[in-house]
Amino acid sequence: MNKRPYMHNEKKQNKASQVKNLLNEEREGSSQKRELTPSAKLARTAIGLLALILTISGMAFSTGTMSDEAAADEIANRTSTEMESGFVLEDASQVALNSQDFAVGNFDGGTARMLIWDFTGDSEDRVQIMVDGQIIRESHTLTSNAAAYSVPVPSVVTILGLEGQATYAVKFPERKYTIFNAVAPGGANAYTLTPSVVP
Fold it and tell me: Where along the chain is composition biased (Basic and acidic residues) (predicted)?
């Protein structure tokens, strides 16, 4: 009788150790299945980076759009920090600008970059661009593509109307705002550029 309980306990221990061994083997097998090969790790990383890049570029394009109504309000105010270079208003019938001169300050000095384009589309009106009375562009045709000019600071930039009732935008990227203006043939707009005052 003494042998039976002992044998019974031994069988239980054997079964328990067999179950334990099976569980350990399963764990080892599943951990081996979870390990990725170097090429799989590289593929996973590449997919993650691509998703991140697409998300960021999607946000950049979605924040740059503005409704025509909001844009018309910005244009009526004559200056905007919201509009990007080359922005074109779809319905230009809402815009009625008169010719105006502007003083633009707080430049670092030296030279500034000036962008100019037709914010109503490709009307192909022509203007002449002068700096301190010297012609830097005899005839510039306004289109929706922004054209860039380097102008000295301090200076007075003059936009002279040559052909067509020109509505245009001027942007000084360094100052981060856009100015909207109009000029008739023979008329002129002056932009007085001044450096920031050093204390």
Answer: 23-36
What residue numbers bound the domain in which 180 lies?
68-195
The C-alpha R_g of the chain, in whole angstroms, comes to: 35
Note the pTM of the prediction, 2 decimals: 0.65
Residues linked to residue 157 through DSSP beta bridges, in sequence order: 131, 191
- The strand pair at 166-172 and 177-183 is best described as antiparallel
Residues forming a β-bridge with 35: none
143, 118 Cβ separation under 8 angstroms? yes
| Residue 44 token pair | 């996973």
What is the per-residue pLDDT across 153-199, written as a single tens digit (0 to 9) for each?
999 999 999 999 999 999 999 888 899 999 999 999 999 999 987 54
Q: Are residues 102 and 160 in the same domain?
A: yes
